[in-house]
What we know:
CATH class of the largest domain: Mainly Alpha
Number of strands: 0
Order of helices and strands: HHHHHHHH
Strand content: under 5%
Number of domains: 2
Radius of gyration: 19 Å
Shape: globular
Distance between the termini: 46 Å
Structural class: mainly alpha
Helix content: over 70%
Number of helices: 8
Amino acid sequence: MTTTKVDPRIIRTKKLLVEAFQEVSREKKMSQITVKDITERATVNRATFYAHFTDKYDILDYTLSETILKDLNNTLSVSDIINETVITNLFVSIANYMVEVQDSCKMNSETFCNQAHQRINNELEDIFTIMLRNSYPEQNIDVLVNSASFLASGLCGLARHWLDTSSLTAEAFIDKNLPFLIHHITHL
């Protein structure tokens, strides 16, 4: 199998555009951000922007995806099996990311926040599906996908609950609650 090497200029330009978008999004609401704002900050022209992204929502989606994936990939390997350590590490990564998103949400709309949370959930579903397929290759794919969706939604929901209600650190919160979930709820 051959892999295509991406031109370093493309990588640099995308990085420049993403950084400019992140800077502008800290200063303006998403509804007020224009492609012109992003291109001026990145010191590139509009044609360059449109060569990489269709609009400001496309760069938002790309930014969320890349940020989440980078963080989650640093946390685990899809060859890992799902256990307490993996769940703990994922929870802490998600919780920390949600804190960053919440800071952005103070400036932006609820739609922005919901899109970010949905992106986190989708990425987690993909990761859990791969991990479950690696651990249970003989299992029906629909069962694995549904199980991955259950795990992702539960973990994201718990992280949102922590963010909204807890004064504990993410680590302390999951350390306090996960043993009960693992050892009691799973044995119903």
